[in-house]
Design goal:
This protein has 30 helices and 26 strands. With 772 residues, the protein is an alpha/beta fold. The chain folds into four domains: 242 residues, P-loop containing nucleotide triphosphate hydrolases (Rossmann fold, 3-Layer(aba) Sandwich), CATH 3.40.50.300; 118 residues, SecA, preprotein cross-linking domain (Pre-protein croslinking domain of SecA, Alpha-Beta Complex); 183 residues, P-loop containing nucleotide triphosphate hydrolases (Rossmann fold); 160 residues, Helical scaffold and wing domains of SecA. α4 packs across α6 and α4 packs across α7. It is globular. It starts with a helix and ends with a helix. Bound molecules: adenosine-5'-triphosphate (ATP). The site of adenosine-5'-triphosphate (ATP) has 16 residues, from α6. InterPro entries: Helicase_ATP-bd (IPR014001), Helicase_C-like (IPR001650), P-loop_NTPase (IPR027417), SecA (IPR000185), SecA_Actinobact-type (IPR026389), SecA_CS (IPR020937), SecA_DEAD (IPR011115), SecA_motor_DEAD (IPR014018). Its EC number is 7.4.2.8. This is Protein translocase subunit SecA.
């Protein structure tokens, strides 16, 4: 029985705990048991160890005893198989994961091993695990690195990347533990959803998702839709229109809103365009939804999307840059019209586009897993979101060795120019001692600019820009070498250790005496979490290290979120601001940015919840059609004469033909429904102005429309059933004018100006509220 004092202590602890965070105390108790048991396991030989793991599989109940046992076994197995004896904190991390938490462990604390111990535990409990990795390179690296541990525990492991072939994917998913980036899993799920044969599906029923870099996947990328498209001829953007908008001048012909998210033609701009297009009326019924929207898209591409910031042009193609990672976002594209407009702007060939067959957001994809857990260096800052969106709690694991990194006070300058001059000066000064410096920039263009300025100042640096992950990993691994200056966009090369003295640690002592790695942030990120991630690259595992951030009042973060800040009261000759009030501006801007993002996320999720619910219901129905003779029965009942005609065919052929027809029309109706929902959502925010609750309105229209899908699909299927030739070779759909997409491809939508109406309205509201 808990004593009164015990209960009081418990309450006190709860009170002191941050909302959304779990208590570490029970895990510490488990750890004591793990350590005791681990000593016993050290006496077993390898075979006995594997056999002990196999015995765990037999247990019907996986409680506290088994949890302790699995960690003790894994501790011994990791020591033998990998030469790494898990630290206590790594065991605590694994226990937290096994209990379904997001564990926060600082950079370099050995999350890969904690994750593998937990994944093996889930597998021995009988649950297949998807370890969601940040990219292909890390999926492969971690799966291969941890394989000997899995082998010794008798657990199978596989990995999947962008270039994996269908049979490799199948093998990857067949393993008990599969390492893969979230996009690859999502794309495979989408492809499976269109399968017309059960045997073509490859992704198993989801059980456990163990997410690496959990905050970035579960929160930052949550709203990113993964899209499966089917081939049709792409909409081509008019190069003449691209040339025309290039001639338009800001503030005369068009205006850009405060947040640089929307661009509008002015009266003079409209007149010029109308004249140049042969005297048309852009706002007439004939042109308003065609020509005018094309002009707007071309203008958006021309003035709001910047080469080398938002995208780069390489090998005659437009490649998007993922703004949170500052790297080429493979397979990402903008919505079709905008993609084509950017291609026209850059005079490169238009890529194929097509019909969106289905899409799923990262959040919806991960919500399918009954168990989600994750690990990251920065979870506490998003604890509220993890709790609200995924019902997850954060468990903070202390570092193995105390962090001794020295984080200097942030330095704020009046202008961008003066800030950059100060950064170059700082690098020059520190570099003289040979202390390695890692400069984290906000985007590729900034990296380029800085590296130019450094070379003008006679300093050599290595720049990491949107290259491939493996190359970047190798470069970043040496960022701790003597005299090295590395300039990198925020997330490039992440997941890779920066060891003092380079990857082989030759100069370790010398570098440690110089103060270890020095991280310089050239600007504050929109989320403090990202600043912490950059900082965390120095001072790993108790190493010495340091960090400092530079910002200016002209930084986008400030101009966008606190445009009406006070003028600084105390400025030095070099432009450095000293008064505390103004220094606080950047923190304030960051908090506003975080608040805006959170509300946008909440709002988007409210809408997507309904779509996801409808998708789940429809998929259940589709599954029944796919795995039974339901389609044949339904169509035969609707068209008995046709069914009779087909009587002489093999039952299997008849059933399969009816199934194919029904699936086709169901899929088509769903595709159309998605278009309907997108249109509805785009227009719905306007209703807020008409004082109707947009979300209620959205539901009111989306629900009846959904209920039309199945009846409409059956009606169309009935027609095809009668019309299409059906013989020993099955249903000849193409001849009946029913076309399934011949090729499909997948992409991530990076920025969707067409569905941002709601977000924009929302942002303006936030601004209004803030200004009061
Ligand atoms: N128990 C251990 N004993 C000794 N070294 C270890 C142990 N566990 C991990 N390491 C080492 O620590 C380093 C960091 O490990 P890992 O990359 O898993 O860290 P991380 O927490 O994932 O870091 P990041 O946040 O950068 O992804 C690796 O070089 C690894 O070999």
């Amino acid at each position: 029985m808990t004593t009164l004092l015990g209960r009081f202590k418990q309450r006190l602890r709860r009170f002191a705990q941050k909302p959304g965070s779990a208590d570490l105390a029970p895990y510490r108790k488990l750890l004591v048991d793990v350590n005791e048991l681990a000593d016993r396991f050290s006496g077993l030989d390898d075979e006995e160890l594997t056999a002990a793991a196999a015995e765990l599989r037999e247990k019907s109940d996986f409680g506290r005893v088994e949890l302790v046992e699995v960690c003790a076994l894994a501790r011994e197995a990791a020591d033998r198989a990998l030469g790494l004896r898990p630290f206590d904190v790594q065991i605590l991390g694994a226990l937290g994961l096994l209990e379904g938490h997001v564990v926060e462990m600082a950079t370099g604390e050995g999350k890969t091993l904690s994750g593998a111990i937990a994944a093996a535990g889930f597998a021995l409990r009988g649950d297949q695990v998807h370890v969601v990795s940040v990219n292909d390179y890390l999926a492969q690296r971690d799966a291969e690195w941890m394989k000997p541990l899995y082998d010794l525990l008798g657990v199978s492991v596989g990995w999947i990347g962008q270039t994996s072939k269908p049979e490799e994917r199948r093998a990857g998913y067949a393993a008990e533990v599969t390492y893969a980036p979230v996009s690859e899993i999502g794309f495979d799920v989408l492809r499976d959803r269109l399968a017309t044969d059960e045997a073509d599906r490859i992704v198993p029923e989801p059980r456990v998702a163990l997410v690496d870099e959990a905050d970035s996947v579960l929160v930052d990328e949550a709203r990113v839709p993964l899209v499966l498209a089917g081939s049709t001829a792409g909409p081509s953007a008019d190069p003449a229109l691209a040339a025309l908008v290039k001639r338009l001048r800001r503030d005369l012909h068009f205006e850009i809103d405060d947040e640089e998210r929307n661009v509008y033609l002015t009266g003079a701009g409209s007149e010029l365009v109308e004249r140049e297009l042969g005297g048309i009326d852009l706002y007439s019924d004939e042109h308003v939804s065609t020509t005018l929207s094309k002009v707007n898209v071309a203008l958006h591409a021309q003035v709001l999307l910047h080469r080398d910031v938002d995208y780069i042009v390489r090998d005659g193609k437009v490649h998007l840059i993922n703004d949170t990672r500052g790297r080429i976002a493979n397979l990402q594209r903008w919505p079709d019209g905008l993609q084509a407009a950017v291609e026209a702007k850059e005079s490169v060939q238009t890529t194929d586009s097509g019909e969106v067959l289905d899409s799923v957001t990262v959040q919806a994809l991960l919500s399918r897993y009954p168990t989600v857990c994750g690990m990251t260096g920065t979870a506490v800052a998003v604890a509220e979101q993890l709790r609200d969106f995924y019902s997850l709690e954060v468990l903070v694991i202390p570092p193995n060795v105390e962090c001794v990194r020295e984080d200097e006070d942030a330095r704020l300058y009046t202008t961008l120019e003066l800030k950059e001059a100060a950064i170059v000066e700082e690098i020059k000064e520190v570099h003289e001692s040979g202390r390695p410096i890692l400069v984290g920039t906000l985007d590729v263009a900034e990296s380029e600019r800085l590296s130019r300025k450094l070379s003008e100042a006679g300093l050599e640096c290595v720049v990491l820009n949107a290259k491939n992950d493996a190359e970047e990993a190798a470069i970043i691994a040496d960022a701790g070498s003597f005299g090295r200056v590395t300039v990198s966009t925020q997330m490039a090369g992440r997941g890779t250790d920066i060891r003092l003295g380079g990857h082989d640690q030759t100069d370790r002592e010398r570098i440690a005496e110089l103060g270890g790695l020095y991280v310089i942030g050239t600007g504050r990120h929109p989320f403090s979490r990202l600043d912490d991630q950059l900082r965390g690259r120095a001072g790993r595992q108790g190493d010495p290290g340091g960090s400092v951030f530079f910002s200016s009042l002209q930084d986008e973060l400030v101009t966008q979120y606190v445009p009406d800040h006070d003028e600084p009261a105390e400025v030095e000759d070099d432009g450095r601001i000293l008064d505390l009030g103004t220094l606080h501006t950047v923190d304030h801007a960051q908090r506003v940015a975080e608040g805006v993002q959170l509300e946008i996320h909440r709002n988007t999720w409210r809408y997507s919840k309904l779509v996801e619910h409808q998708r789940t219901l429809l998929l259940e129905f589709r599954d029944r059609v796919l795995t039974s003779d339901l389609a044949w029965k339904e169509l035969a009942e609707r068209k008995p004469e046709r069914a009779e005609e087909l009587d002489e065919l093999d039952e299997e052929i008849r059933v399969r033909a009816a199934r194919l027809i029904a699936l086709h029309h169901l899929d088509q109706r769903w595709t159309d429904h998605l278009v309907f929902l997108t249109d509805l959502r785009e227009g719905i925010h306007l209703r807020a102005l008409a004082r109707q609750n947009p979300l209620d309105e959205f539901h009111r229209e989306a629900i009846p429309q959904y209920h039309r899908i199945a009846p409409d699909a059956w009606e169309e299927a009935e027609e095809t059933f009668v019309k299409a030739k059906i013989d020993e070779d099955g249903a000849h759909l193409a001849e009946a004018g029913v076309k399934r997409p011949n090729t499909t491809w997948t992409y991530l939508v990076n920025d969707n100006p067409f569905s941002s109406g709601l977000e924009e309205t929302f942002k303006s509201l936030v601004k209004l509220v803030r200004r009061k």
